[in-house]
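Researcher: Here's the sequence for the chain we discussed earlier.
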Amino acid sequence: METTKIRALREKKAWTQEQLAGAARIAVRTVQRAEEGVMSAETKSAIAGALDVAVEALAPELKPAIQPVLMYENSKKAFDWLQKAFGFTPRERVVDDDGQVVHGELVLGEGVIMVTRAGQLPRWQSPKGLGGKATGFTYVYVDDVEQHLKRAKKAGAKVVADLSESYGQRRYRCLDFEGHEWCFSQEVGS
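Model: Thanks. This is the structure I predict for it:
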């Protein structure tokens, strides 16, 4: 994972993790986890205060114009599963007292998806909570769609459309463990 903004700002002050922990009045391990992108909103606020920056200054650099937010009943499991199954890299993870992800950001190439806990608002549901119904799907370009399919199957993704070619692309469709539909595609030569 890339160096986080927190680490960069800490190093700019020539502080150790221990010094940042002391200034923020948090544990050193909490600083280490924050630099890995895993922190609560309270930790983020404490670190921002210690570094004398706005909380927004700790946000990662990559900000695509469109960032889909996927809602999961078990957002903690989803955050980890999406990395294992689809190759996403974690960028930020904010958890609640139960360890569920209330704001998670995952990166693949130049794309970002966000993960959150279903039910935070009554209208926020996962396909699992809707009896498997979906209102859309996420379309993702990958470098090697065949290898990606193998990885996804190994992690337990349910393939709903096997590899096929059309419109200059080779792709497959699958469901994740809560029923979100995904389409992974690779450009093929003309």
